[in-house]
TrEMBL record, chains A, B:
Domain of life, source organism: Bacteria
Keyword hit for Oxidoreductase: yes
Family annotation (SMART domains): RHOD
PROSITE patterns cross-referenced by the UniProt entry: RHODANESE_3 (PS50206)
Similarity comment: family membership: Belongs to the class-III pyridine nucleotide-disulfide oxidoreductase family.
Protein name: NADH peroxidase
Domain Rhodanese per the UniProt entry, residue ranges: 472-560
InterPro entries: FAD-bd_OxRdtase, FAD/NAD-bd_sf, FAD/NAD-binding_dom, FAD/NAD-linked_Rdtase_dimer_sf, Pyr_nucl-diS_OxRdtase_dimer, Rhodanese-like_dom, Rhodanese-like_dom_sf
Amino acid sequence: MQNIVVIGGVAAGLKAAAKARRCDPAAHITVIEKGDLISYGACGMPYYIAGDVEDIEDLMKTPVGILRSPGYFKNVKDIVVRPQTLATAIDRQSKTVTIKNLASGTEEQLIYDKLVIATGASAIKPPLPGVDLANIYQLWHPADAKAIRQGLEEKRFKNAVIIGAGLVGMEMAEALSNWSIPITIVEMKDQVFPAFLDAEIAGIVSKYVQDKGLTLLTAEKVVRFTGGNAVEAVETDKHTLPADLVILAMGARPNVELAKAAGLLLGSTGAIAVDEELRTSDPAIYAGGDCVENTNLLSGRKVFAPMGSTANKHGRIIGENLCGGHAKFKGILSTVVVKIHNLNVGKTGLTEQEAKQLGYEYITAMVAGHDKPHYMPGAKPITVKLIADAATGKVLGLQAVGEGEVAKRVDVAATVLTFGGTINDLFDIDLSYAPPYNSPIDNIAVAANAVMNKLAGKLKGISSLEAKEKMTSAQTVFLDVRTPDECRQIRLADCKNIQYIPLGQLRSRLDELNKSDEIVAFCKISLRGYEAEGILESAGFDNVKVMEGGIVSWPFACEKN
Amino acid sequence: MQNIVVIGGVAAGLKAAAKARRCDPAAHITVIEKGDLISYGACGMPYYIAGDVEDIEDLMKTPVGILRSPGYFKNVKDIVVRPQTLATAIDRQSKTVTIKNLASGTEEQLIYDKLVIATGASAIKPPLPGVDLANIYQLWHPADAKAIRQGLEEKRFKNAVIIGAGLVGMEMAEALSNWSIPITIVEMKDQVFPAFLDAEIAGIVSKYVQDKGLTLLTAEKVVRFTGGNAVEAVETDKHTLPADLVILAMGARPNVELAKAAGLLLGSTGAIAVDEELRTSDPAIYAGGDCVENTNLLSGRKVFAPMGSTANKHGRIIGENLCGGHAKFKGILSTVVVKIHNLNVGKTGLTEQEAKQLGYEYITAMVAGHDKPHYMPGAKPITVKLIADAATGKVLGLQAVGEGEVAKRVDVAATVLTFGGTINDLFDIDLSYAPPYNSPIDNIAVAANAVMNKLAGKLKGISSLEAKEKMTSAQTVFLDVRTPDECRQIRLADCKNIQYIPLGQLRSRLDELNKSDEIVAFCKISLRGYEAEGILESAGFDNVKVMEGGIVSWPFACEKN
């Protein structure tokens, strides 16, 4: 009968314990958790703060409302869970873990045959003046979430400032905006989601959240927090922002102190190094969840990318391997999806920036379109950016954003990436089709198509960022081929040379354009822009480009009527 | 300069023409269409009838409201489209097509270098007495849709009968139920969606639509239609059903008369045979869309599976190949998705029945669960059935049904099938995760997990159909491990031996069960049923099974309070 000790009782740890129990009914399994809560849905906290989830306890219950308590784990899974218990040291020689009961202060030692480290990660707390003032939160524990929600319900917060425009920061922006208080997001980098979106996609998100009334300050650095007992202002290198609620969302770092002190190998990312079977440098010790590093399947590089879905996969694999299995975890694609108001944002694989850094010869295409046939009620636009290897056509990554359905497209792309598929494969897939769900040619197939057309030299696309740079050039004419009605409603702002010729009239009005000019054609989504390119090229214009994504994906200012 | 003639101006034909124009700016391209409308979204007709789409013309417009008329195709794409023109004969020797203007009756001949046949399919009209009575429709042309919608708006229809419970029939049931008239569906086979759902999944759909008030008559054959000028009743081999609106939805057959008369090869399915480049037996003639047969990628067999998404892919490939390209269409997975009220139903790859017929040694698992974390507002259950090769673990097919999100799971599975992936691959995929979209372990990963557990002998599952058969056995005890509250709300009906022991009490109440009995454990979704199996087996019970899918997926009667 083997002794299994698991350090950490949230996601990976408890999953490993449960799976081990299934594989080895006789094992003695103990889970140590330093907090007072176990097995909670930490990812659900923003939705509790938003008010979408009524009770914080819902995050700790099974779907039928049973609290995942130590008693539940004992009764159902015969697993001993010890909350409020800290593992203070691992002695690998004697195979013992020293634990400390945080309530009573008593220490004892647990003997293990196999040990699992699932100590998770912690939110980064910047060493800035005033960072310990009251009402500065990190949203890392349900207690934080409860305090924030209570303050919102009691209308104690008048000005919220969120530091960091990554996943947690933007989810919190969404959550807080339910409470009708002014929200400012301060981001050090020059865009939102700097870790996983290219600039032109991030620009769409920025424009959207600003339209919804959020203040977004990018390329701006927090210097200090001021106030008496509680925070009153956030000082950046550019502004002083009144703030009585501050959320620190500056990322996370793995909790590796225990592993490090025990002499286990850490990886280049600073997280615990594990092999494909999630074994540490000590074969009796496994590690999983937010405290380990993962392999990015595309780059082959080690990454620190804490994610609840990965932690659960780790748990299952560790559970099997604790019982003699040899299950393998191959790696991740750094897939993410996030909802901000009604905007869906997702990404899988490499961004263009990453592809460039890794030295790929790549090609990209960005397409916009409805997520289902335009005639269906509820059809909404999405913009998809696809990145592929120019030589082989292998898909490298996909980003998608819009009020339409995004997650499905991201997941299909993630699946293609898993198998090393090409843009041709992506186009070929027999995806489900019916008008309530999508168009006969799905948005991602359209994106694959656009990449193929660019590779074949038929589509000469430029990004919205490149187009923006050309706006001030005297040699570049922007050609808007939308209908007069559409042009009346919304137009590109700040454009030096722009001509409006509806697509249907283009063949008969070619003399209004000059063959020596560079022409940038576009429309609402730039499908007509692409038609215009074809018409112009067959008429002998040889410097025509299409602004990819059209007005729908334009991240800069527009004039509206 | 080559002459391209395309016969058929709806999906594949116009797509081929447009793509050819892009690849060959100089070609002379003519599209012949026998109807008066071109390029309409035929798949949208049920939603027009339902009233979701206001105007039938919306189905013929571009997303910005421009009618896809012959003038539009001429102006934008330099393609000549001739509506109301029938192709009556192909002379392959002289490479001419004889066409007839249906308005004027005049005939002429078109010379082609390359010909495309995209003649589509026609709804099957059974040779039954009375089938030509007024108000019996086939929903194959917008004119039918207009007539039905008008009758509904004028409240002329009091009783609708739909013949056929396939895709069109069930979409029409959904559409008509918006108009609050009694609807009866008559299906010859013994289940809904006989072409693509296994019985236990079809049973979930049947139960759902009957709960919504539709009358479903399966294993029942229409014998005749009666009435004066208009239909008044549908007579089946079992009933006489009053009917003043009848929809014939008995499937389709390919329009191959023209191809056959020209001596082109037809395939075993009766549709036009084409190679991977979509060339017919005459190298100057391509064919695509609903009139050709496709290869099922899993079985390797030829199938007739008309689908708008496939037709559009065909069009693109033909367009390239018309201009010297060698693009290939590899085949289909017979993926489908359909919405009925709020129920989403989808399938990709092989059903269990098909896997059996093809001689696979297969394994299946059916799992139920919320489509996102249960604490999120709007979380809804879905049931997923996964079919895999027992020897290799290769995924063979997936079916999914529920009010929760289904299409995404079907599309991920379709992608896995495209690459010949295994259940391990399916589990591994780094799918996007955030609480508004899914749980950390997505439903399809849970299904993959269940198959792995069954293969490893850890989960002994039986289907709801097998369980139903055991209900009358004296040697079988059904063990419901839900909470007393849940059991009060809903219970399996007609179960001879049933015991109620909540999971948390099971370890301490083992003496209430008999080791010589066969025990079928279950709960709401049978996750606790699986836990119960583990507890019982570790206590020495060796004949325990789990009823897969639980109460949520139970297609038979329940008692409710």
